[in-house]
Amino acid sequence: MISLSVVVITYNEEKNIGRCLESIKGVADDILIVDSFSIDKTKEICQSFGATFIQHIFDGYIEQKNYASGQASSDYILSLDADEALSEELRRSILGVKKNWGFDGYGMNRLTNYCGKWIRHGGWYPDRKIRLFDRRKGRWAGINPHDRFEISDSSANVQHLHGDILHYSYTSISGHIKQVDYFTEIAARTLFEKKERASLGRIVIAPVFRFIRDYFLKLGFLDGYFGFVISTISSHAVFVKYVKLRQLYNDYT
Description:
By secondary structure, this protein is of the alpha/beta class. Helices cover 42% and strands 28% of the residues. The strands form two sheets. Strands 1, 2, 3, 4, 5, 6, 7, 8 and 11 form a nine-stranded mixed sheet that branches. A two-stranded antiparallel sheet has the order 9-10. β2, α2 and β3 form a beta-alpha-beta unit. It is globular.
């Protein structure tokens, strides 16, 4: 049986981290928390679960997760966000993998709770993620703030596990809108550093396409009122991201 390190990055997560750590009891051989200098009770809650708690300056989601993976005591890692927890079915699947590790990584679905409702359409589910992996086989990549674990070898074997990561995302619509402003700031700067452009056509067309894709093509309407809200805010986020990107070019070029 392999030894499994559960790794979580945090910043002011006192409302979420207890639920996350409770769900990994019996799964984790050790817990590593890499914290970005929280000022709430995150540290005390983590330590009450016996977690190793270290602090590290936050340079970006991808950078922080790569740093955290490197600090784990085991090469075999389960990576979770503080606002996530394991379903009982996924717990059983991971326990089975620990007894017989046979792949380079393991993928799983993520099911998101939005304002008390589980969202199953609009591109939000199954939202497959590789979160259980041998850190020697890959690293975190993507475009901040959207990280993903990538296996280095194109011929690598990844198995999909039964069960869901339960993602407790937004408890209010205002919280969603507030995070859009934060995430689009990061995304716009990342795109600017990559020298991507935001033409007027892109600013106009991309948000419309996002709404049509999420609400109609990906069946967001089946999630009722919140499906419409999510699709609309997602479309707005695309608009804001490219407007901010265009403004960066105006400010610095």
